[in-house]
Amino acid sequence: MHNTYRLPRNWRQNIEFVVSKDDGPDGEVLTIEIRFKAGKKPKGFGQDIGEITVYVANPCFIERSSIKEKMQHRGLGKELYMEACKELGKISTKYHEASEKAQRLWKSLIKEYKHELDFFDQRITLYPRKKRKKKNEI
Description:
138 residues; Aminopeptidase; 7 strands
């Protein structure tokens, strides 16, 4: 039997985003890592939580993203995508090429944030501005 550890209540204030840019074979690549701050890692968890890689071009396409299994279903993927969007001004994906989990994440993001759909190119572009609520919405 193995030990299962729970996250402390304040775990969200102990995470940070680390941004780096490199030259890749197809141009500049932005990588954003999400991890626990130094010395703040809870017992039973690794330092790294996940990362996202984006090709910096026009449009900025998501190459890949991942969140460690222990940390999934906590909204961190959404935070990672929005961090990339804020960093670059917008991010895009070819919706039909995204995994099922990524498609669910994009559906969630476009409900809340401004976006553009290109039907013929099957591309979604997301902007880091929240949608305005209509007067009859709560």
